[in-house]
Amino acid sequence: MKQIGFYDTYVCLDTGRSFSSLTGTIFANSKVKLLHWFQVIWLNWQHPELSSAEISRQVGINQKTVWSMLKKINAAEKQI
Fold first, then answer.
1. CATH assignment, 31-80
2. Which residues, 6+ apart, have CB-to-CB distance to 64 below 8 Å?
């Protein structure tokens, strides 16, 4: 494993494929900042009755984005 560049991106010495610490997580390939992900996860955990519209107002991101994030979070919770 060899780190390339400034960011947390690595290259596998066996396969030559690049990966990061987010690879294989619900955060992979997401344009949403990790801070927003953690805020949505926290609000969903503390107040599961909140709608995606209310969470989007509190976090300051689009309601459709929050709805999609909640779907991924709930799917990940079911896999545990």
1. 1.10.10
2. none
Locate 57 and state its tokens. Answer: 């107002």
Strand order in the sheet with 9-11: 2-4, 9-11, 18-20
- Structure pTM? 0.82
Structure tokens at 37: 């992900």
Residue 58, both tokens? 């509190």
| Residue pair 76/51 in contact by the 8 Å Cβ criterion | no
- pLDDT one digit per residue (tens) for the chain, 80 residues: 555 555 578 889 999 998 888 889 999 989 999 999 999 999 999 999 999 999 999 999 999 999 999 999 999 999 98
The domain segmentation of the chain, as residue ranges, is 1-29, 31-80
